[in-house]
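Narrative of accomplishments. A recurring question from our advisory board has been how the design workflow behaves on a single, concrete structure rather than in aggregate. To address it, we present the structure tokens for one chain from the evaluation set, followed by the sequence designed for it. No filtering or post-editing was applied between the two.
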């Protein structure tokens, strides 16, 4: 099998065609309706609204981390470090692609959210999705993201009203270079944590005892 065929097979195994299709569907939806404002539920007297495009990073992060799931985990365990490195590089590439797309849509839609807010949010949600995959397993990478949406929204609206900066509600804060920077740091940390296999973690713990 040639290198090109091997790469094509690996990308298919990692569900990259599916991920690209999902990102394309999100992009079409964002371009068509992303400018529309969606009212959020009022919690303890705190409420607000977001553009529909605000949800793009949330669903894009869950789509991207589908590449963490493999139908051949036993075979890949033989060269776990190499596979983990290649997979994380794939995640970075897909996140970069999604970041460019959402920044472009923010400019095209001219909605209530800046490109930096959406890109920072994409980094934030992808980091959370990677941590979810690390704790619960690759097929459950969406769980922590779905759990966090409500508290992040409520706390974010409170932080916006109080005019404070809080990294744990980053997607709700007005975007700037700091937003993107914090999101990038969170994503970098999550990539490192998620790349360490449970087997290697157990070995490190044993070596210290």
């Amino acid at each position: 099998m040639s290198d090109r065929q091997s790469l094509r097979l690996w990308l298919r195994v990692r569900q990259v065609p599916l991920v690209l299709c999902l990102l394309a569907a999100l992009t079409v939806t964002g371009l068509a309706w992303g400018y529309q404002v969606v009212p959020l539920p009022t919690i303890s007297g705190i409420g607000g609204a977001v553009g529909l495009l605000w949800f793009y990073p949330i669903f894009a992060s869950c789509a991207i981390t589908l590449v963490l799931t493999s139908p051949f985990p036993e075979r890949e365990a033989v060269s776990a470090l190499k596979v983990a490195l290649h997979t994380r590089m794939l995640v970075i590439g897909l996140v970069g692609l999604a970041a460019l797309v959402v920044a472009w849509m923010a400019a095209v839609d001219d909605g209530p959210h800046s490109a930096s807010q959406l890109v920072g949010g994409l980094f934030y949600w992808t980091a959370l999705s990677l941590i979810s995959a690390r704790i619960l397993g690759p097929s459950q990478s969406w769980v922590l993201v779905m759990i966090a949406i409500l508290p992040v929204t409520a706390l974010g609206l409170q932080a916006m009203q109080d005019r404070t900066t809080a990294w744990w509600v980053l997607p709700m804060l007005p975007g700037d270079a700091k937003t993107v920077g914090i999101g990038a740091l969170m994503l970098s940390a999550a990539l490192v944590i998620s790349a360490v296999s449970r087997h290697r973690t157990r070995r490190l713990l044993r070596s210290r005892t």
